[in-house]
Amino acid sequence: MAVLVSICLAGVASHAQQADEMPALQNAPQSSYLPIRKQAYDIVIMGDVLGTGLWAGMNRFVETEDRVTVTGRIQENSGLARPKIYNWATAADTLLESRPFDIAAIMLGANDARDINLPDGFLRFGSDGWRKAYGDQIKALISTLKKHRVAIYWIGVPPMGRKDYDDAMKVIADVERQVTAEVGVRYIDLRLLLADSDDSYTERGDDGTGSIVRLRSRDGVKFIAGGNDRIAVELMKLVRADIAVADSAGGPAFVPLQEEVILSAEELAAMPTFAAQRPGGEPPVKIEPAELPGLNYTEIARVNEDAIKRAAREGLTLFDKVRSSTIPESAARSLYTDGVWPEGSPERYDSFNIAKDPASSAH
After folding, report:
1. CA 79 → CA 19, 87, 88, 293, 362, distances in Å?
2. Three-state secondary structure of 218-287
3. Which of 102, 227, 297, 321 could be disulfide-bonded to 215 (CB atoms 3.0-4.6 Å)?
4. What is the DSSP string of 67-96?
5. Taking the mean position of all CA atoms in its chain, how far away is CA 39?
6. Contact by Cβ (8 Å): 58, 232
7. What domains lie within the chain, and their CATH numbers?
8. pTM for this structure?
């Protein structure tokens, strides 16, 4: 086990230290792993039957996240050892041509304990020739994703309950670990994360908070919800760290989801006139540019993302979503609800009724 640790994550002395301080990973040698600085990153889970569980765990994890979205490309019976049946490199290229995304979280290998069929014969599973051919399939998928500037997080195959199956997964994990280290791709080692102290299978483990709970299905292969959540926690720990690096790196700033939009009086006056239908069927009220606030007045509009999400869940119309996203009792809320600008309060600094020069007012 000590050899495994030294290969995968230098400086990690124990499972407990690893769980408390850092994800089980290999560091790619670059200052910012995410190639583009963005407010929200689109993650696609690419995988086999275990990838389905990871996708479910990630969906639960990111319900309160505003920096990532998660979708999936799953082929439950697929792998990398039979590219003639399903070629992941080709599939990824096709997907990215029609639907670009930022991050690929890859969980493949559970179906790959088999010989590889080549035109000139079979490569016996685990042989040197098999290892090279399997590594080439990993590199082909990684190369395709890198061509499209996708950041890659490779989740290694986990320990398995049946000993012969677990021995086969050790071979696959070894190839995954070597290839990802060679090409500089993040690798989350599930053997390091989930195996018992003697590198054997266990259905229980740390849930990410220090509590030991059951993580695996009774079949010794799949994960139950807590296990999928555990992997999602480890993946997002790493993604969040890389987002923090990208945020602090140079390059164009991202556009925040919640933003202050400040318009000058001239900009407001230059906007086209419009009409809003009043509640109760009253005729629309037309607002002319001359009726807009005078010089030196600034309106700050804020977007309430929680209100927008709530409106979407309640099935409201687009106009309802926009209206409900405005701040209660604000000028924007009055405008969207009643179709008129509210009267200014004489006590307010931003009242329409004060002197033209706000600098002359005490505030």
Report:
1. 29, 8, 8, 64, 71
2. CCCCCECHHHHHHHHHHHHHHHHHHHHHHHHCCCCCCCCCCCCEEECHHHHHHCCCEEECCHHHCCCEEE
3. 227
4. SEEEEEEE-TT--SS-TTT--HHHHHHHHH
5. 11
6. yes
7. 2-248 (3.40.50.1110), 261-360 (no CATH)
8. 0.63
Amino acid identity of 351?
S
Of 244, 146, 158, 168, give the one whose Cα is nearest residue 202: 158
Phi-psi group of 83: left, alpha or beta (phi > 0 → left; psi -120 to 50 → alpha; rest → beta): alpha
* Residue in this structure with the two tokens 């292969």, named with its chain if needed: 221
Query: What is the chain's pLDDT, residue by residue, as a tens digit (363 residues)?
Result: 332 322 233 233 333 343 344 455 554 434 689 988 888 999 999 999 999 999 999 999 888 888 999 999 999 999 999 999 999 999 999 999 999 999 999 999 999 999 999 888 899 999 999 999 999 999 999 999 999 999 999 999 999 999 999 999 999 999 999 999 999 999 999 999 999 988 999 999 988 888 899 999 999 999 999 999 999 999 999 999 999 998 886 544 443 443 445 556 666 555 544 444 444 555 555 545 555 444 433 333 334 455 555 555 555 554 555 566 666 766 666 665 666 655 555 544 444 343 444 444 444
CB 336 within 8 Å of CB 326:
yes
Residue with tokens 């919800």: 225
Instruction: Please state, as a whole number, how many other Cβ atoms lie within 10 Å of the Cβ of residue 350.
Output: 16
Token duo for residue 183 = 């090409």
Helix axes 225-248, 49-61, angle to 10 degrees: 60
